[in-house]
Design a protein that fits this description.
DUF2171; 1 helix; mainly beta; 6 strands; DUF2171 domain-containing protein
Length: 74
């Protein structure tokens, strides 16, 4: 289990396949808000905390692949 207090602005988020999913803009409630610059539509998107598997070397790894995470972005 990870501590959400360890999630900081500008941390990289990677899928379980190691592929880049996005960059943390900020934490809002029980979600991680991603920066607009990583989005093809230049909008903020969010991912729920329950997708996070672990935090290693200033990088957040998800339980799902990049494709699955992109399909789940709000």
């Amino acid at each position: 289990m990870f501590e959400k207090l360890r999630i900081k602005e500008h941390m990289e988020i990677a899928g379980s396949d190691g592929e880049h999913v996005g960059t943390v803009d900020k934490v809002e409630g029980e979600t991680i808000k991603l920066t607009k610059t990583d989005s093809s539509d230049h909008q903020h998107h969010t991912l729920p905390f329950d997708m996070v598997d672990r935090i290693e070397d200033n990088r957040i790894y998800l339980k799902v692949t990049k494709a699955e995470a992109q399909a789940a972005k709000a």
